[in-house]
Amino acid sequence: MAENKKTEILRLLRESGDSISGQDLCRRFGISRTAIWKIMKQLQDEGYEIEAIRNKGYRLVGGPDLLSEADLISRMETTWAGKTIIYMEETDSTNTQCKRLAEAGLPHGTLVTADMQNGGKGRLGRAWLSPKGSSISYTLLLRPQIPPMTAPMLTLVMGLSVVQAISNVYGVDAGIKWPNDAVLNKKKLCGILTEMSVQIDAINYVVIGVGINANQTAFASEISQIATSLKNELGHDINRAELIAECMKTFEKNYQLFVEHQDLSALKDAYEAVLVNRNQPVRVLDPKAPFEGIAEGITAQGDLLVRKADGTLEQVRSGEVSVRGLYSYV
Length: 330
Ligand code: BTN
Fold this sequence. Notes:
Number of helices: 9
Bound molecules: biotin
Distance between the termini: 49 Å
Shape: elongated
């Protein structure tokens, strides 16, 4: 109960941007002035800068960069995505934890976040680094009623949602390197790893894990040429919870369109508008038969359409092969 009040008070202070009197808060939440004062004290202890002015009330001046349940919930503007939140200061992998929670029965839309991962997983069995206090790692649990073969498209839905969220919050044109890496200035900002559990031809659950380079300023030498962070590109720190909440908002909208059509047809135009490979030369790293061509766009199933020099159009299935720009990472 007290936790809910704290979250609601935090939301109110953030949304109002102005002072709110103690009396007003007492009336709204049906609790005493002492109880309000205690909540303010708790928030201050957690790092929120709350100004308390006699005869005026309380005002939120600044806040820490936290991924706590209270901070995230106080920012969520969704109906179901990210309404149940599990936060861990440190974990092996939010995907692994999310799968465990899915087995335990947590609902569709549960969001698992961590301040740091010590065993983060990337695509193709690679490791993913999520340093403490500066990276974004989250995994969203879904229980979609769609055929299992359509589930990989959800990765593209999340990729588009992350790019839209970055553009909405920071006003920059982030793009997508097919199928789902978010990029800014031709460098990778975000990677996505989707895992699924199927039972007798039906999806039991899908977990979509997202790693965003938020406030990191240095990267391991193997990736330093192709990776960047929002801080590096924008020139200032970002608030991680603000971006996660916006990702949930954009994803919830896009997911609705995806489920209605059971494919990407309603999202294809928006996706192609931010596809950095579009009309660019690419190399398709098919282990059996690599080839080059010009990427023209995607199909409603999320396959990349690549025009070869002989004029034929190849359909490249996501998840099966990697694609590189001919002259750089994108
Ligand atoms: C990639 O290789 O591009 C995908 C990286 C996915 C990383 C995220 S971080 C949150 C979630 N937990 C993991 O262990 N992996 C994903």
